[in-house]
Specification:
CATH architecture of one domain: Orthogonal Bundle
Shape: globular
Radius of gyration: 18 Å
Largest sheet: none
CATH topology of one domain: Rna Polymerase Sigma Factor, Chain: A
CATH class of one domain: Mainly Alpha
Helix content: over 70%
Length: 203
Amino acid sequence: MTQSIWPEGQATAELLANIKEGEPRAVDALLDRHRDALRRMIAMRLDQRLAQRVDVSDIVQDVLIEANRRLIEYVNAPSIPFHLWIRQIAKDRIIDAHRRHRLSAKRSVDREQAAIGQLSNDQSAMDLANQFQDQGLTPAAAATQRELAQHIERAILQLKEGDREVILMRHYEQLNNQEIAQTLGLSEPAACDICVRSKDSES
């Protein structure tokens, strides 16, 4: 079974407890262990044309700075799991980046020669493709991995925005139905229904 891109929850809970007790080193440890997951989550969602102008690492750093600023508030009153909380900050930063660099400067960005609607980069597409196929690849199968990634990417891009986001959360981030429901502000049955419909649309 594929694992979530997000770090294991028990270690996160221990770090949060240490932070609440006033251990300053726990803050850096907590944020550092989520850095790679944030990078992967952001890279998957950043438009290719924007990715040519904005470094994913810069957005990750902005997320970590904002998370650090708001961390004590979260620790004192956590309403959702930490990884969902920090990914929401990341989602807001992605929206801000698109708003600044695509909407306010749409003319200059759209003139660039890039695949319209393409996911952020080849590695992100490959990472997603890996979630849908047998990991024990033969050399011949490995040779077709890029083609499979492109096929999956095109299929995902044909989905409605909401369904596409659920596919990414479910199959790329490996969030469960409860986590998806919390992220989208839905009941768990409603989130489950969206997952089913998204899977049918993808087929």
